[in-house]
Amino acid sequence: MTVPLRPLPRLIFASRWLQLPLYLGLILAQGVYVWQFWTELVHLIEAAFGNQHALEILVKSIGYKATDMPTGLNETILMLVVLGLIDVVMISNLLIMVIVGGYETFVSRMELEGHPDQPEWLSHVNASVLKVKLATAIIGISSIHLLKTFINADNYKEQTLLWQTVIHVAFLLSAMAIAYTDRLLVHPEKH
Fold first, then answer.
1. CA 20 to 30 Å from 20, out of 11, 75, 86, 150?
2. Global confidence as pTM
3. Structural domain boundaries enclosing 126
4. Which pLDDT tens digit goes with each residue over 152-170?
């Protein structure tokens, strides 16, 4: 039997629903990422079949610079576009973790137990697990960006390359610190 909450605690507890518009906004942002993915994919397919206009759009979107506009898809352009598509997928995965995990952790239970499509990680998600998963996802996204930069290094200043590497290492160290702190909090007797 649950005891009814007093008015102030009830109001404070109900305030968690103020996050609902934020999660709905992230769902809309996910829709924009889906549109971006399909637009880039269509341009890639068109460029593979010789469409020069689609190739020009791709070259501009990836920041590829050459003395002359390529007449066809080359390995570098293809790799940069595919890495861009992977980046969109990874950011989309991050959005799903934030939307589903955040809603489940901070707003309300989704009651997905026993549902065949329940994500495996959702059964044991809490704020701490969510932080580690998000940090790991950010490292993956940062890795893709860094790889895109290195593949296209001729088009970047040395200072940009250095700062992107430093920022990636900072993300990596931050994620390791978050994971280590989480481990200390979960298993304090082992340390």
1. 86
2. 0.77
3. 19-190
4. 888 888 999 999 999 999 9
